[in-house]
Write a structure and sequence with these properties.
Elements (H helix, E strand, L loop, with lengths): L2 E2 L18 E2 L1 E4 L9 E5 L5 E6 L8 E15 L2 E16 L11 H9 L11 E11 L14 E9 L2 E13 L3 E11 L13 H4 L4 E12 L1
Parallel strand pairs: 2-11
Antiparallel strand pairs: 1-10, 3-10, 4-6, 4-12, 5-6, 6-7, 7-8, 8-9, 9-10, 10-11, 11-12
């Protein structure tokens, strides 16, 4: 029988899964990684899904797509998460063609733009990383989350390009004997990691939303 427990949360990159607005991730300075003790679960990259969504000002021309997780693990001890980390391949970023409705634009063109030095500079910074720094129980009587069934607050260092900041957000985690699953949807401010188009405050940068929504469905398995 599965039970819901503290556990691991995932990811990053620019913009997140579709749907209504979500929880704003608390953003702070980089913190020390949590010690990983207990049983190791390996992230199943074929069963893990990470989504992104971003829009222009006013919500016009929403863009959304996916990014692949290439490696990672999490540790569970006595029914609780003790630590973990994962990596994302920014060169795997793809835009869903359904989000590009302009006749003169292609989703593959946007893929290249986001991977270029204008945004993620994937040629020089191909990997984004998340490292767990803390896990606490989620108290729905004290905090309200737009994520149904949130069980934990996860904190971790998120590295994008050459910048690392700590983020905290709600997650729903379920653990069984052979696997752990986790779901989350939250918002980050891309400019906190220095991701700006052209220059900060420029009209070109202004028309792109600073808020990026990140969503994931994570599965990790015991080896």
């Amino acid at each position: 029988m599965k039970q819901t427990v503290p556990a691991f949360i995932l990811l990053l990159t620019m913009a997140a899964c579709g749907g209504a607005s979500t929880d704003q991730a608390k953003t702070e300075e980089k913190k020390e990684a949590a010690a990983a003790t207990g049983v190791a679960y390996t992230i199943d990259t074929t069963a893990t899904s990470v989504q992104w969504r971003a829009t222009h000002k006013g919500g016009f021309a929403p863009r959304f797509g996916t990014i692949k997780v290439t490696d990672g693990s999490l540790n569970v001890e006595n029914g609780a998460l003790t630590g973990g980390s994962f990596e994302v391949n920014l060169n795997s970023l793809t835009t869903d063609p359904a989000s590009v409705t302009e006749k003169d634009k292609k989703s593959t063109d946007l893929d290249g733009h986001l991977k270029s030095a204008d945004f993620f500079d994937a040629a020089n910074h191909p990997t984004a990383k998340f490292v767990i720094t803390g896990v606490t129980a989620y108290d729905s009587t004290k905090e309200k989350s737009l994520l149904p069934g949130a069980t934990n607050l996860i904190s971790g260092n998120l590295t994008l390009k050459d910048s690392t900041l700590n983020i905290t957000f709600p997650a729903q985690v379920t653990i069984a004997e052979g696997d752990v699953t986790a779901k989350a949807k939250f918002i980050i401010d891309r400019t906190a990691w220095g991701i700006n188009y052209k220059t900060e405050g420029s009209p070109e940068n202004w028309v792109i939303s600073k808020e990026v929504e990140i969503g994931f469905d994570l599965k990790a398995v015991k080896k």
